[in-house]
């Protein structure tokens, strides 16, 4: 296989996928194969996040709510044009979103009176090992400042169910640790409040439930995250190096990006499970062209937008943020 420019550009999404299963990672991010269908949850989540961005930027007025609904509708309809199947996707639909956002505003307007929006939809890279030159790329929904508390990031998330299992998973989620790491790298440690999960649970039986979950990670716990980041970053580099060291097509087994068959049926299941069941060594097959039902789309966390350098206190952390 020929080395692709995106292989060693890592972010939380890639690291989490690699943690879950290196072989699944191989198909998605090394081959670039992704299912050639619209992901309903992803499209709706993107639309809802865009609505929340408007509220963070414009405030909680009725005019801002109307603009937020318009933006969400436009994004959603790019993925799912209006047709007779709309009812099948309820409650994941923009119609009625005005009522949802109005309920949200009424719920949190007093609490958010003391919150100032500093940035929305920022991206960049943050160091995890300066000596080795290892950086982790990231994209964050926001950076806010809350009076009497400090700097925080609010992460918007939509769910179809509310459970203790989901809440517990957020506490240890690698991505949330990344956001905390970014805040610690930009601002003095004592001024960082944490990451707030701004959850909206859409259910057919109960309507919409709102919940905010604060994930605070003191420096000693961030050392755990940093160890994880460097460990999996290093393991990934070893797998890429091993993949490129020879032609694997003559081997019985691909001895890198190992299978980790412990979550093959988690959530909606793995789209690559049939390749793992039938292919002992994927390099013996044609990988330059995706199989039926898939398209090639390499995940690249970087873009060409201007990079702005930030400092933390008196220390130069080498953190860069890109703002649209």
Task: Give a written overview of the molecule.
By secondary structure, the protein is of the alpha+beta class. The protein has 9 helices and 9 strands. A hairpin with a 4-residue loop joins strand 2 and strand 3. Helix 1 packs across helix 2 (22-30) and helix 3 packs antiparallel against helix 4 (62-79).
Give the helix tally. Answer: 9
DSSP summary, beta strand count: 9
The CATH topology name of the largest domain reads Lambda Exonuclease, Chain A
Order of strands, widest sheet: 6-5-4-3-2-9-8
Tell me what portion of residues adopts beta-strand conformation: 15-25%
pLDDT < 50 runs, ≥5 residues = 304-318
Main sheet specs: 7 strands, mixed
CATH class of the largest domain: Alpha Beta
Mean pLDDT comes to: 88
Helix fraction, binned, reads 25-40%
User: What's the multimeric state?
Assistant: single chain
Write the layout of secondary structure elements.
Blueprint: H1 12-20, H2 22-30, E1 33-35, H3 40-58, H4 62-79, H5 97-108, E2 115-129, E3 134-146, E4 150-159, H6 164-172, H7 174-186, E5 192-203, E6 207-215, H8 219-244, H9 273-278, E7 294-296, E8 307-312, E9 315-322
Summarize this structure as a short list of keywords or feature phrases.
9 helices; 324 residues; two-stranded antiparallel sheet; alpha+beta; seven-stranded mixed sheet; 2 domains; Lambda Exonuclease, Chain A
């Amino acid at each position: 296989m020929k080395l692709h420019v995106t292989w060693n550009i890592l972010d939380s999404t890639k690291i989490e996928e690699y943690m879950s299963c290196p072989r699944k990672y191989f198909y998605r991010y090394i081959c670039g194969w992704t299912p050639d269908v619209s992901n309903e949850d992803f499209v709706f989540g993107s639309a809802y996040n865009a609505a929340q961005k408007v509220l963070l930027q414009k405030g909680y007025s009725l005019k801002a709510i109307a603009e937020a609904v318009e933006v969400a509708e436009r994004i959603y309809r790019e993925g799912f044009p209006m047709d007779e199947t709309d009812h099948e996707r309820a409650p994941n639909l923009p119609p009625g979103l005005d009522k949802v956002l109005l309920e949200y505003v009424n719920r949190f307007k007093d609490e958010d009176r003391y919150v100032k929006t500093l940035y929305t939809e920022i991206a960049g890279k943050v160091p995890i090992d300066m000596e080795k030159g290892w950086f982790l790329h990231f994209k964050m929904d926001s950076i806010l400042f809350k009076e009497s508390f400090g700097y925080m990031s609010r992460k918007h998330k939509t769910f179809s169910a509310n459970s203790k299992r989901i809440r517990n998973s957020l506490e240890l989620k690698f991505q949330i640790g990344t956001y905390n790491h970014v805040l610690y790298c930009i601002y003095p440690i004592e001024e960082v409040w944490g990451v707030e999960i701004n959850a909206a649970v859409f259910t057919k039986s109960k309507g919409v439930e709102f919940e905010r979950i604060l994930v605070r990670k003191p420096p000693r716990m961030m050392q755990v995250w940093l160890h994880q980041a460097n460990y999996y970053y290093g393991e990934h580099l070893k797998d890429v190096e091993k993949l490129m060291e020879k032609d694997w097509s003559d081997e019985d087994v691909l001895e890198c990006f190992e299978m980790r068959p412990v979550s093959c049926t988690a959530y909606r299941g793995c789209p690559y499970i049939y390749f793992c069941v039938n292919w002992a060594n994927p390099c013996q097959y044609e990988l330059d062209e995706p199989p039926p039902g898939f398209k090639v789309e390499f995940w690249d966390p970087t873009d060409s937008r201007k990079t702005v350098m930030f400092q933390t206190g008196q220390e130069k952390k080498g953190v860069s943020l890109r703002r649209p």
